[in-house]
Specification:
This protein is an alpha/beta fold and 492 residues long. The protein has 3 domains: 6-278, 3-Layer(aba) Sandwich (Rossmann fold), CATH 3.40.50.620; 282-428, Four Helix Bundle (Hemerythrin (Met), subunit A); 439-491, no CATH class. The protein is 45% helix and 14% strand. It contains 17 helices and 15 strands. The protein has a 4-stranded parallel sheet, sandwiched between helices. Strands 5-6-7-8 form a 4-stranded antiparallel sheet. The chain has a 3-stranded mixed sheet with strand order 12-11-13. Strand 3 (25-30), helix 1 (45-59) and strand 4 (63-68) form a beta-alpha-beta unit. It starts with 5 loop residues before the first strand and ends with a strand.
Length: 492
């Protein structure tokens, strides 16, 4: 029998056997996007990790509640407690209401992520819909002595908390180093900053007159800090202590470290049992950055409309490419790697189409039971999708050899091979068979072929044939336009 599922718990920095708090129920939370711009490559890896985990846990028989939030207030520029709210700033630039920005980019996020064949979460709460829950949690932290109010803003007292708890355990940071590192900042802000210590972070911020999004609170009119929203929403829908919290490595500090501190200060224990973190995406060996002009939006990946892309790559090719690397490893996007993933996905898809045509024999020359066990061992070892995919490719070789009568398989093994291969491809990895092209693409290809034939007819001075092709296409709703640089067409 395969071993039990083990997950790498960032909080304890070790691989741990997964034991739900209240089996068969599992609660898990993913930090969702701050919706002030179109989704880029970095927005895809967290949802794909959670999609695999969500699918696999349900496959193992667990009843999963999966929560992924939408941040629509409180996330300030540079992830600090200063500057503009990212959504409010974008709203002012576009001269629209903040909720128009939220709606526009939430739709864009869903549209792009859905193309990856990622299952939607059970609940998708928004920060603005949970202001009262955040206020209540801030009140609890103040009552327990770990926060203080200054001029209508409330800050978490990191040094006070560090006297009782291990602040920095998740990210591996030492409170002494944080204090030392903040020394210059403290001296620079002496007499003008209202925080007791530069490491303190905002739970609630007083709103200026021109601030767009603001609410009434016990401390005056203001808005919540970025970190408190996830603590409030995860505890509302999953309880004060739940199973799994996930997100990108870039959220380790300060976001997730602050979540742990807030929950511990309010509820007197950490928010969850397991912390999972996916690693970052690089482009041709470099971090994505505006200064490098190498940021790729998801829709640009799917359309090929970016200067770093040689062609368009389908959403499933991109998903398969990410699954070919372990979620805790850095993955580097390049045209060569994406093209290889495209070919690999096609090989798996072709094998699935062959499976239903295979003929069984009276004997079997393949160890299907052991192969199936290896697949589960790979997934149980911290969701090792690259290893699982390698075992699927091993089966592709069998399928091709059985198809060409070079290898024999009996009826029972063939059934097990087919069921297991399809289960892992469709249900666990969340892949699917892709069309060779859309109807529009096929039509355009046919029109281009007819245009070439028409040009050949014109070259041979076969005007009757050239006119017939033009007229027949017009009757089908395709207008040809002849110009100095050749012919073009328009679909009506």
């Amino acid at each position: 029998m395969p071993s039990k599922l083990k997950l790498y718990n960032t909080y304890n920095a070790e691989l741990e056997e997964f034991e739900p708090l209240q089996a068969p129920f599992v609660g898990m939370y993913l930090c969702g996007p701050t919706v002030y711009g179109d989704p880029h490559l970095g927005h895809s890896r967290g949802p794909i990790l959670m999609d695999i985990l969500y699918r696999y846990l349900m496959h193992l028989g667990y009843k999963v509640r999966y929560v992924r939030n939408i941040t629509d207030v409180g996330h300030l520029q540079n992830d600090s407690d200063d500057g503009d709210d990212k959504i409010a700033k974008k709203a002012r630039l576009d001269q629209v209401e903040p909720m128009e920005i939220v709606q526009k980019y939430t739709i864009a996020y869903h549209k792009a992520i859905d193309k990856l064949n990622v299952l939607p979460p059970s609940i998708e709460p928004r920060a603005t819909a949970h202001i009262q829950e955040q206020i209540n949690m801030v009140k609890g932290i103040i009552e327990n002595g770990y926060a203080y109010e200054v001029n209508g803003s409330v800050y978490f007292d990191v040094l006070k908390y560090a006297e009782d708890e291990d602040y920095g355990k998740l990210s591996g940071r030492k409170i002494e180093d944080l204090i030392a590192g903040a020394g210059e900042e403290r001296r620079a802000l002496e007499g003008q900053d209202e925080k007791r210590n530069p490491n303190d972070f905002a739970l609630w911020k007083k709103a200026s007159e021109e601030h767009i999004m603001k609410w009434e609170s016990p401390w005056g009119i203001g808005f919540p800090g970025w970190h408190i929203e996830c603590s409030a929403m995860s505890s509302k829908y999953l309880g004060e202590y739940f199973d799994i919290h996930a997100g990108g490595m870039d959220l380790l500090f300060p976001h997730h470290e602050s979540e742990i501190a807030q929950s511990t200060a309010c509820f007197k224990h950490t928010p969850c049992k397991y912390w999972l973190h996916n690693n970052m995406i690089t482009i041709n060996g470099q971090k994505m950055a505006k200064s490098l002009n190498n940021g790729i939006l998801l829709e640009e990946m799917f359309s090929g409309d970016h200067h770093l892309l040689d062609k368009a790559y389908s959403p499933l090719t991109m998903k398969f490419f990410l699954l070919m690397a372990h979620y805790r490893s850095t993955v580097d996007f390049s045209n060569e790697a994406l093209s290889a993933a495209e070919k690999g996905l096609k090989r798996l898809s072709n094998a699935i189409e062959k499976l239903d045509e295979l003929k069984s024999s009276d004997q079997s020359e393949v160890a299907v039971e052991a192969w199936k066990e290896n697949l589960y061992e790979a997934m149980n070892n911290d969701l090792n999708t690259p290893k699982a995919i390698a075992f699927l490719f091993e089966a592709v070789k069998w399928i091709n050899e059985i198809s060409s009568s070079k290898l024999k398989i009996n009826e029972d093994d063939l059934k097990l091979l087919s069921e297991t291969f399809k289960t892992f491809f469709f249900d666990i990895l969340g892949l699917k068979l892709e069309d060779e092209g859309s109807d529009k693409e096929r039509i355009e290809g046919l029109v281009n072929l007819l245009m070439e034939l028409r040009q050949d007819a014109k070259t041979e001075k076969n005007w009757a044939m050239a006119d017939k092709i033009r007229d027949d296409l017009k009757n089908l709703g395709v207008d040809l336009m002849d110009g100095k640089e050749g012919s073009s067409f328009k679909l009506n």
